[in-house]
Structures
1.
Amino acid sequence: MKVTIRRTGNDLSAYVPKKDLEEPIVEIENEGLWGGFVVLRNGWRLLLPDLPKDTQLPVTVEAKKMVNDAARKETS
């Protein structure tokens, strides 16, 4: 899914245009942001592509929504 990552003051946020959803990023797996997952305030975990640390924001990327283990077990 397309996601726009931007800086809002000292924080980061993610905007998902298809869902018209903008949420603050509350957890980052990698200090450099790219190539790991981020967690949005609504609980979504998004896997971001591996980009250079100095990538300018805002930027729109193709991210993958990660399903948590509990949801996987329920659908199995």
2.
Amino acid sequence: MMNGPDLGSTAPSPAAQDEQAASGRDEKENNPFAEYMWMENEEDFNRQVEEELQEQEFLDRCFQEMLEEEDQDWFIPSRDLPQGVGQLQQQLNGLSVGDVHASEDILSKSNLNPDAKEFVPGVKY
């Protein structure tokens, strides 16, 4: 009986099979083509990838449109004002209010009485 053909081909017990599964053997070890199984459904895989790419492109377009709309809400003088208004703005920026010498010149040439009473509308003097 020891020399019989059944001795070398003993099937593993169910407990031994559970141990193999629990020992962390990958699907690759059981099936050498596991990493290529996606090719079995290549058309579905391609369709799924195309849908993901189209969705990403759609989201990018929406985001870009949102940024453009936001830019339109902001007031940017160089973009939103006519050309002549920009020149006027530059001229206004060049003016100063606190020029002491110019105000003294105006006062020296003035005909107004500095000692006059303050004008109040509707009051007769």
3.
Amino acid sequence: MSYTLAAQIRTEIGKGSSRRLRHANKVPAVIYGPGKEAISIVLEHKDVIKVQGNDDFYLTDLTISLDGKDVKVRVQDIQRHAFKPLVEHLDFKFA
């Protein structure tokens, strides 16, 4: 199964801006890989929660729709809240 997530490029970087995004029900994330520049993005929390419940979300290539371009990625790391069902940050690697 293939998954597609809509994202926007994140211009503000840091702890404060990430907290503001989380309070607005968004998830800060980053896409990185060898030979390419890292891209900071923001995703909708409800979209992430919906697809991350499937086991193959962690094993297959995902498509991130970023400003009209599709980027193939794989989940590298996911940070969750300690006791709430929240995703706090995602790391993706270029596929």
4.
Amino acid sequence: MWRLEMERQTIPHPILLEARLIASNQILLSYDKRTDLASATNVSNYWIRSNMGPVGIASVGMSDALTAENAIRPDMAMITPADNSMMRYVMGFRVNAMPGIMYTVLPCFVNLEGMTGYRGENWAPFSRNMFFGM
């Protein structure tokens, strides 16, 4: 277990800098480094936690473990590049974020441009990955 955690910390990977609600059903995701397009646009590499459980755009509650079964599914949302930077993406949902609910975006397995195989989290203590539905 300790060895796996050390490997995650030493493999270079992009970190989510900010997740910002830009429309009632869209989130702008901004990374600190250029990402691999395939892993950054794979919705199954994302979880959204809410303080009210899996409601609205959220797939998990506050105490739920992140598993493949409760990741965002392709029938719930899609991710597209916001521009050509390979660092900014828009996640659009079929439903709206619920007003007043706190959401946290939790990406995992997003690789740096030209790389594959990263198996850890893509957020850090400085990530601004929380927002309220409006």
